[in-house]
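User: Here's a structure from my thesis project, written as structure tokens. My advisor, Dr. K., wants to see whether a designed sequence matches the one we expressed. Can you design one independently, without my sequence as a hint?
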């Protein structure tokens, strides 16, 4: 009976709840957070002896505005009552402690969105945090988001791709730390006194991923003269289809980090490794999602083909030319995928036009996934350094290393008396430089990628209109 009552409450709340961003307390909260952010140091504290620092009374009054706004918004979010109460307590504690390095562990532990994954459910999130691919400092951010949990996705998670901590989410509104390229909400970015034993959720903003994908893919297709099949062209022009593709891709990708033959910590949090190891792990997870999408398409699932081409196009077009060239592991994975498909004659760059063998693309992409899986399985029996070299050999089979690389010269070029983590210092910042193809593409896509900063589905539609 309790479970039914909870479900009814959630359903009623979604259908009848007022949008948080339409309540007058939301802009008040957002403005107060934006006022506090520039006063904070990189660790989230406020130094009152710094030049231009505000008075303590000014900061206290601004945080009070934050607290009052949260309390006004709380009735719209009864499912988050425990979290919002803990949030207010943590804000008051930060004031009482004199605005030292913030500790929001209590409110982090109280925030449990994965326990109620209901499509369309709103959440208000306020934390001192950094944002991946956004703001590196632990400043306050305020975000209003909605859950993306349609029935078809819930069914796949329940029966096939168990991932009880995964959240598909979309933006309603946000503060400056998310007016960036960041498309994730991860608990490990939040300022706390100690890390919890385990995290209980992780969110991906599929609306931003989809909108960014569409803009970069459309530009790439135009630049490269690529002729798309009608169904893929229709997918790229459809925000809803792309969001569905990304939320399924992300759910399978996320669970893959803890599945398979794993010779090392799949998240590599406490290990210092060469960046190609990170690149192979991320690519393995994406290619696993691709492989599962091929299976889903063969079973008649309408999302399967969309996921395949979301993975291929995002990996081949955007990843290699996004970010800087300092140990860019996601870029490396995209370079490797393109080079592998090119060397197996699935993609051809001829007469300044890109052509794709659409029939062979799934088979050959799965072949690369199998090669990475074989590397992992063999790695279980290898010492760490030997495994790193085996991975280097796999990557350098398809990508040319920098001519000045010591790693490319093999073990004899390195001081093997050092522990493996020290040999990471011999890895060049750009160990596998861009090919001439990608150098040219990077120049043409530079402004397009820059234009996706802060993009959402709504902002993308306004620009296209």
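Assistant: Designed independently from the structure alone:
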């Amino acid at each position: 009976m309790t479970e039914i009552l909870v479900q009814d409450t959630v359903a009623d709340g979604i259908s009848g709840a007022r949008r948080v961003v339409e309540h007058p307390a939301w802009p008040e909260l957002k403005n107060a957070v934006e006022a506090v952010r520039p006063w904070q140091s990189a660790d989230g504290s406020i130094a009152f002896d710094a030049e231009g620092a505000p008075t303590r009374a000014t900061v206290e009054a601004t945080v009070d505005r934050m607290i009052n706004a949260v309390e006004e918004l709380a009735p719209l979010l009864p499912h988050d009552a425990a979290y919002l109460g803990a949030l207010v307590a943590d804000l008051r504690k930060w004031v009482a402690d004199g605005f030292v390095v913030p500790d929001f562990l209590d409110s982090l532990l109280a925030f449990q969105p994965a326990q109620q994954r209901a499509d369309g459910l709103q959440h208000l999130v306020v934390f001192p945090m950094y944002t991946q691919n956004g703001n590196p400092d632990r400043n306050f951010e305020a975000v209003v988001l909605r859950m993306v949990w349609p029935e078809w996705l819930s069914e796949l998670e329940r029966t096939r791709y168990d991932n009880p901590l995964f959240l598909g989410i979309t933006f309603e509104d946000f503060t400056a730390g998310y007016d960036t390229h960041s498309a994730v909400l991860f608990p490990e970015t939040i300022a706390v006194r100690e890390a919890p034993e385990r995290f209980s959720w992780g969110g991906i903003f599929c609306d931003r991923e989809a909108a960014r994908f569409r803009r970069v893919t459309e530009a790439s297709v135009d630049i490269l003269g690529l002729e798309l099949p009608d169904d893929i062209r229709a997918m790229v022009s459809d925000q809803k289809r792309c969001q569905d593709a990304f939320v399924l891709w992300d759910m399978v990708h996320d669970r893959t980090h803890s599945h398979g033959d794993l010779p090392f910590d799949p998240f590599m949090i406490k290990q210092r490794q060469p960046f190609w190891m990170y690149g192979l792990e991320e690519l393995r997870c994406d290619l696993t999602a691709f492989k599962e999408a091929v299976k889903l398409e063969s079973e008649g699932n309408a999302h399967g083909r969309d996921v395949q081409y979301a993975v291929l196009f995002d990996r081949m077009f955007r990843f290699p030319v996004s970010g800087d060239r300092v140990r860019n592991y996601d870029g490396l994975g995209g370079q490797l995928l393109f080079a592998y498909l090119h060397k197996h004659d699935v993609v051809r760059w001829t007469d300044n036009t890109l052509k794709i063998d659409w029939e062979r693309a799934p088979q050959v992409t799965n072949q690369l996934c199998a090669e990475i899986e074989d590397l992992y399985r063999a790695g279980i029996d290898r010492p760490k350094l030997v495994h790193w070299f085996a991975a280097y050999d796999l990557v350098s089979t398809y990508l040319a290393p920098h001519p000045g690389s010591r790693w490319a010269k093999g073990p004899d070029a390195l001081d093997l008396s050092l522990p493996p983590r020290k040999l990471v210092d011999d890895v060049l910042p750009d160990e596998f430089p861009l090919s001439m193809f990608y150098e040219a593409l990077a120049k043409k896509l530079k402004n397009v990628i820059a234009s996706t900063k802060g993009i959402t589905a709504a902002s993308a539609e306004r620009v296209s209109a």
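When you compare it with your expressed construct, this may help: The CA atoms of residues 2 and 8 lie 10 Å apart.
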